[in-house]
Amino acid sequence: MAKKRQNLKQEADAALTKPRLLRLRQRDSSWEADFRALPQPLTENQPHYLGLVVEQASGSLLAESQFEGRPDASDLAALLARAMQQPLTGQPHRPRSLHLRSQPQWRGLVPTLEVLGINVSVQRTLPKAKEASANRIQQMRDARRVQMVTPTARQAAVEQLFPAIARWVQGHGHIEIGDQESFGFVTLALDYGGVAFEDTRAETLAEAMAALEKGLAEYFKRERIE
Length: 226
Fold this sequence. Notes:
With 226 residues, the chain is α/β, with parallel strands linked by helices. It has helices at residues 2-16, 19-23, 73-85, 110-115, 127-144, 153-156, 158-161, 163-169, 205-222, and strands at 30-37, 48-55, 61-68, 97-101, 119-123, 174-180, 184-191, 194-199.
């Protein structure tokens, strides 16, 4: 593990101490850099993250990249180097200050950034980066919906027929309905911590949906979720 951390530090130093970075003009600007988890399909075990560098005053996006697995110091270093050398907005330059969320894996980068004349500060929240990541994730979702099948008027009424189920899948978790080997026909409602509702008595889709609607309505009432 120590060897791995040393390798990461070396990679980070290599990304940020290139002579051309030191030759870049330094401007009196402040940046926010952050990583946000991307929505993860159930079939994927490895989380993906969106890395962003944002100019604090204007909110302009300077660099972005997606990473598989938990980002480390070398990932942040590469992202910052890209923002300095090839920004998506404006001319190449070094910032005067950089704001990060408190994460232990960033600490080893501070001395390297100081060599570049960049002051690092730790913030509890990074509002510009948070806003930019929310906008970017929404753009990704919109792109995936380009060829989305439009439901018929009769199909669209499902949310009125099953309001508790609609509420669940839009902000609380997901559902599973169907045959499971050794278990038969199973109806499940799962949140981000596990199974919130389960029924094994249904034998048809209609029975499963009715049981799920009743179970989730009782769940919301029991948990006092308005």
